[in-house]
Amino acid sequence: MTIRATADASAAGAAPEAAAVRLVSLLPATWEVSGIHCSEGTAALSLLLPGDVTPQDATARIADVLGHPAFRGWIRSDSG
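and the corresponding structure tokens:
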């Protein structure tokens, strides 16, 4: 899954590394992060989900997390 900064986040100097750490800290503890790659304006995370979490559940949870005020100016930029 990838998130990217919009103009709002970029103008505020939001670092993708900070966004990735915030995102990981707000995900359920049973989700595993198997990789993080940050580049200018984006953070890509590889997640391993427990067997009882459906893709729809994961998408909904990530949308909830991205609604947190700490993610103002960040959006999900992929469909996976």
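(Above: one complete record from the training split.) The longest strand covers residues 32-39.
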